[in-house]
Design a protein that fits this description.
The protein has 214 residues and is an alpha+beta fold. Helices cover 18% and strands 29% of the residues. The protein has one domain: Coagulation Factor XIII, Chain A, domain 1 (Distorted Sandwich). Bound molecules: 2-acetamido-2-deoxy-beta-D-glucopyranose (4 copies) and copper (II) ion (CU). Keywords: Cell membrane, Glycoprotein, GPI-anchor, Lipoprotein, Membrane, Signal.
Length: 214
Amino acid sequence: MRFASIAFLLGSLSVASAHFQLQFPTPRGVFVEDDEPTFCDGYTTAATNRTTFPLTGGFFSLNSEHPTWTVGVIVSTAQNPSSFNNFSQAVPFFETTGEGVFCFPIDLATSGVNGIADGVNATLQIVFDGGDDKLYQCADVTLSSTATISSSVSCTNATGTGSSSASSSASGTSTASSTSVSPSATGANNGALANSVASGAALLSVVAAFAAML
Ligand SMILES: *[C@@H]1O[C@H](CO)[C@@H](O)[C@H](O)[C@H]1NC(C)=O
Ligand SMILES: *[C@@H]1O[C@H](CO)[C@@H](O)[C@H](O)[C@H]1NC(C)=O
Ligand SMILES: *[C@@H]1O[C@H](CO)[C@@H](O)[C@H](O)[C@H]1NC(C)=O
Ligand SMILES: *[C@@H]1O[C@H](CO)[C@@H](O)[C@H](O)[C@H]1NC(C)=O
Ligand SMILES: [Cu+2]
């Protein structure tokens, strides 16, 4: 029993400290790990400094701290969307694997969402599920039929050629990995990783104290 409780606590630790961070387009605000299971990572007001985003040939990139995950994008053309009801599916959900930075195409012009047009303000909400919870980050953009994404914005996949989605996905059981900090994570989120490590260490000492009391 005692071991079971400790194992349970350790299990929650590894799950809670592994999420995702949107890299591009720039998210509404700095990543807040604890708020990521809520609408727009807890940011309920649209940013006024919007990223100019291409109607066709766009992409979004994120850093995944989960080994197996599902991701999709929903979009709203409301000036300040406040509810999931204001969003429509722009990129259908698909499953993929790998930790680190990943980049996926998004073509809003062919998404079939009402109101998508040149000059329109929109909010992209990335919906990510790595097995612990559905997680959300938002980016506020202005759509443009002429803009292209600067070549200084990187678009790469941690696994090189891109771990494909539709492939025979093993069992569907996304087992939580036993460690949250993987050497494959890129340097892009050292702060977030450091936080994960720090909070992990803090929780470990709590677990140790708890174990000592038994
Ligand atoms: C888009 O958003 C910006 C910043 O919030 C605002 O100043 C501008 O008027 C909006 N444009 C349209 C077409 O609604
Ligand atoms: C908007 O401004 C904030 C605060 O200066 C900054 O952190 C963020 O990166 C900016 N967003 C964009 C899309 O430029
Ligand atoms: C957003 O969704 C809320 C809740 O359903 C609704 O009341 C509101 O009218 C919507 N806003 C827009 C701009 O569609
Ligand atoms: C990354 O992999 C996905 C498939 O999982 C693919 O659609 C995408 O084009 C790849 N991105 C790059 C930059 O190769
Ligand atoms: Cu997570």
